[in-house]
Design goal:
This protein has 15 helices and 17 strands. With about 425 residues, the protein is of the alpha/beta class. A hairpin with a 4-residue loop joins strand 3 and strand 4. Helix 7 runs parallel beside helix 14, helix 9 crosses helix 10 and helix 13 packs parallel to helix 14. The radius of gyration is 29 Å and the shape is elongated. Bound molecules: zinc ion (ZN). The site of zinc ion has 5 residues, from loops. Zinc ion (ZN) binds next to loops.
Length: about 425
């Protein structure tokens, strides 16, 4: 004990220093900032090369800490959650260390990881981003079930093949919706939405949304995840969705929004009749109010009618009750005109109201192929959009208020026939009948 101070003053100083250290320690402890243990066991010179320092910090979630682990030898800074459940923590730590080891063996000089967390019900999703030399190299996700104290895999979370198919289709719809920015090829979209567990294994839940993460640089514009409402992959929609798609048949559904209109709807009906094709019309309650005989004609020709709101309002900007009242008003008008209530809802602009979706028994239907007929108002271009983006199971978005859409329909139907596609209604495609 040579280093102990020999003078009385020195001893007092040492006592003061010890008390001060303890106080600071307790203070940091209260803050949840526990300075920690050294990671490596021995203290020989060789071992020091692998030395890392662990710091345990409070996370925003009760009972869960964040571990910050740092090494200056080959610089890395890791951060990951610890739940106190040994089996859970081992899985997380093993996965994090695997990335660390790959970094140590690589040419990269610096690894910084960051963590973010989101919750939905009993689930907490942790997303760890590993930045090597300031470039995101990988993303790791862990979804923890607080109630059952275990990690949940995508297979456990989604549970059934039918839901996996629905998930794949919903993500595809969302990617198609954003594809003007993303600029992905049809083949890339196929890969990113391939209906396997592996495709969606990096996932998180965030409030009312499900997020799938893709490897860095898979999606352009620095977007690394695609988000869809959880309600769209709800278990209550499980059966018998996709019944029509089970035998590799090439079914597609044509949909016409914003009508009915005196100028265009009769022309559309004519062409559909010539090709003996059934379609779905997402009608506005206000337009049905003006031309109930057109709605009757659509139904009499064997087509299906869906609800597209009363007057093309943005339902996502309303409360659940307001959106429900709007949809109910359109339901009533359509039922008064045709004797039948619409089977499904398509919210204007694809802007959903998740509260409404929980309240309503009518499923929400978006689309997979946007012909952009509303924007280009050009028959050739409307046809080309279908030709370039069509795929089995696709829902094609058109509008029976633009004459150019009526102009394009004959070539679209001829093309689909040549390609072996069969047109069905939405409720047939979704197995709702
Ligand atoms: Zn619309």
């Amino acid at each position: 004990m040579q280093w102990l101070p020999k003078t009385k003053l020195g001893k007092i100083n040492l006592v003061l220093l010890t008390v001060l250290t303890l106080c600071v320690g307790m203070f940091l402890g209260l803050l949840g900032y526990n300075k920690t243990e050294h990671h490596s066991a021995g203290a020989t010179q060789e071992d020091l090369d692998n030395d890392s320092i662990l710091v345990k910090e409070k996370s925003p979630f009760e009972g869960i800490s964040y571990i910050k682990e740092q090494s200056d030898t080959k610089y890395y800074k890791l951060v990951y959650p610890m739940t106190g459940e040994a089996a859970v923590d081992k899985v997380i730590q093993d996965a994090v260390y695997a990335k660390r080891d790959a970094f140590v063996a690589s040419e990269a000089t610096r690894l910084d990881s960051s963590i973010s967390a989101t919750t939905s019900g009993n689930y907490i999703s942790f997303v760890i981003k590993n930045n090597e030399d300031a470039i995101t190299k990988s993303v790791q996700t862990f979804t923890y079930d607080r109630q059952h104290k275990k990690l949940v895999t995508i297979e456990q979370f989604i549970d059934t093949e039918a839901r996996l198919n629905r998930l794949s289709k919903e993500v595809r719809t969302e990617i198609q919706r954003q594809n003007e920015q993303l600029q992905l090829s049809a083949q890339q979209i196929d890969q990113l939405t391939d209906a396997t567990w592996k495709t969606f294994e990096m996932f998180a839940v965030d409030g009312e949304n499900f997020k799938v993460f893709y490897a860095p640089n898979t999606l352009k514009n620095r977007l690394s995840s695609i988000s869809i409402p959880l309600v769209n992959i709800d278990k209550k929609l499980d059966t018998p969705v996709f019944r029509l798609n089970t035998n590799d048949k090439k079914y597609v559904a044509l949909t016409f929004d914003d009508g009915p209109s005196e100028a265009v709807t009769p022309r559309i009906l004519n062409t559909l009749k010539q090709h003996q094709v059934k379609a779905t019309f997402y009608m506005l309650g206000s337009s049905v109010e003006k031309a109930p005989q057109l709605a009757q004609q659509v139904l009499a020709d064997g087509h299906e009618i869906g609800n597209h709101s009363y007057g093309h309002e943005n339902l996502s900007k309303m409360t659940g009750a307001e959106a429900e009242a709007n949809i109910n008003k359109a339901n009533e008008l359509i039922k008064n005109a045709t004797g039948r209530e619409p089977l499904t809802i398509r919210p204007p602009y694809g802007a959903r109201n998740s509260e409404l979706e929980q309240l309503s028994s009518q499923p929400t239907i978006l689309w997979g192929v946007d012909t952009l007929d509303w924007k280009t108002r050009n028959a050739a271009s409307t046809f080309q959009e279908v030709q370039q983006h069509i795929y089995p199971g696709a829902i094609i978005l058109m509008h029976d208020i633009h004459p150019t859409t009526a102009d394009a329909l004959d070539s679209i139907l001829t093309y689909l026939e040549q390609q072996g596609y069969q047109c069905v209604t939405i409720s047939q495609l979704e197995g709702l009948q």
